[in-house]
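User: My advisor, Dr. K., asked me to get a structural model of this assembly before our group meeting. I'm new to this, so sorry if the format is off. These are the inputs:
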Amino acid sequence: MNKTIYNFSAGPSVLPKQATKEAAEAIFDFAGTGIGILEMSHRTKPIEGMVAETDSLLRELMGIPENYDIVFLGGGASLQFCMVPMNLLDESASADYTDTGVWASKALKEAKQFGQINVVSSSKSDVYNNIPKNFTQTPGATYLHVTSNNTIYGTQWKSFPKANTFLVADMSSDILSRKINVSDFGLIYAGAQKNMSCAGVTVAIIRKDVLGKVKRTIPTMLNYQTHIGEQSMFNTPPVFAIYVMNRTLHWLKQNGGVDAMEALNNKKSNLIYSALDASKLFTGTAAKEDRSTMNIPFVFQKGAVAEDKVEALQKEFLSFTLERGLEQLKGHRSVGGFRASIYNAMPIEGVEALVKAMADFEKKILG
Amino acid sequence: MNKTIYNFSAGPSVLPKQATKEAAEAIFDFAGTGIGILEMSHRTKPIEGMVAETDSLLRELMGIPENYDIVFLGGGASLQFCMVPMNLLDESASADYTDTGVWASKALKEAKQFGQINVVSSSKSDVYNNIPKNFTQTPGATYLHVTSNNTIYGTQWKSFPKANTFLVADMSSDILSRKINVSDFGLIYAGAQKNMSCAGVTVAIIRKDVLGKVKRTIPTMLNYQTHIGEQSMFNTPPVFAIYVMNRTLHWLKQNGGVDAMEALNNKKSNLIYSALDASKLFTGTAAKEDRSTMNIPFVFQKGAVAEDKVEALQKEFLSFTLERGLEQLKGHRSVGGFRASIYNAMPIEGVEALVKAMADFEKKILG
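Assistant: The format is fine. Below is the predicted structure of the whole assembly, which you can bring to the meeting.
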């Protein structure tokens, strides 16, 4: 294949070419040991060293203070939906959850098994096209939960609410895409398969003082303290997914770190948002002030296309872009239309190609 | 490196060269899509097809009947230690557990949170060098749990006890190494990182009728029914680890399936056991009738080496074998000495090289 492909998938999604190449090479020989990384015991110095280095790199890149532990877990962010309240929320206590999308909603539903959950805000009736920012926190709530970026709806907390106690955030789809102040959070978790690695590993960043305060018995594997105490080596961790993260973090560091990514992500997303705002055919679906730099859903403007032609024209746009190597642009079924996911590893050339395709298609259709 | 390396690691461990090569290639381009497997959404036809094919292959190779579901999960077999009783054992009910090693012991310890656990047998006082086979099952126990192969001690259930109700087995370290009758089991689980794949995915094979009988509320991600209902796609599964499994199962099928593996594993392990039985320097540690075909721990014979020279001589043997490319032969700390793990993907040439090294070393030391 000679055509350059740009992969706009919402996740698993594009990774740095350098990182995936290095990961593939390590399958044949890891770090000059003569043994491939898939076949090497986690109880060896090279693997232990690699996992420790991944911890250090993440700590450095995100500015994670010493009073936080980092663990690498299997099971996905969805498993964190129960692990968070299981570890942090006592049965007699309450927690505040903001309902900004399907994932936020799944997180709060799961938490209800473990304590009183207060849904302090919701944009569900707007198909989650905005982030409600005026809400009242519950006095005495153990924590306030937010989903930093909502992949399906393309909304993002631009600044985080100040929690009465501490924030817990699902950052699966925008971790490492912008500078955040880790000290504002008691716990951050993120599935790796957008900005960090392939699917198979989830990171939790945990302030030491938030643990050990619930009375329930926590199953060993679901207790953060188990994994903290063993540096994520209590049992066999997902070694390869951690290594892909290691190589991705190296790439990120070589490319200027989170500050540089944030500038690039602003630039990339502005290119698309400017194109949408100037378009007579397309329009973005998210409220302007909450627009995500990671996921950009867009649809045909009402009135620009006859109702009975929308479906056919959607297919046509997807074929039109596919011919140019622009893949996975179909929107999520709950929003419809299109979605461009432009994580850290999406080069600006991909975004430029998309913006050009949108303009060319508009010219073709509207003249 | 020109020297052939044989990797005797207990896990993660040796995989078929063909499978790892195919997996590495898919990182650059999966199935001719132009997108790498680490970067492709699980909600695409190529990935859904690959996961479904992996299910079919495993079903075919193990002879799994239609009244069983297969799920691919993250978290490792250690997470199954709590998921099994959470899903199968009601609080007022009991289950029987056999204590044949550290992993069996961890499984039963974890189960105690969920119901009455009867430890019906234990070889702990013998440092688990045998499998106790005479024990009485508890009338009314929901299930009988066994660990089919004990990686650390090199013991293996040669035939499984007949359960009053149904068997649950942790087959992490010998799944696909020998023919078993799946219908004897209500649930089989196995971390993939020995005979099936790299670390990062765990398989559970579940008879349909054993589920849905407990009264407790099970967190969504810990409920087998969640994953069964969504063909392991409830959330993002560990795609790459499933693909390594897919390629390993293809290799296994091409090489004669489980019957051929069983014959080869018997041949490989017999080579080492015969050498141990004939040796004046080395001896196996496991009871003869329970000897594993997967993991073979061995030590210096008492009296063959002066007590104060054992440690130095152990180091010498490890250097001696390492020079010949025989890696990861150090024994587990709880048994000491050496351990050769010879899973499906260990070629007979590796075993022959080890047997020759043992003989050469013995000649060097004892003359």
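One thing worth pointing out at the meeting: The radius of gyration of chain A is 21 Å.

User: Perfect, thanks a lot.
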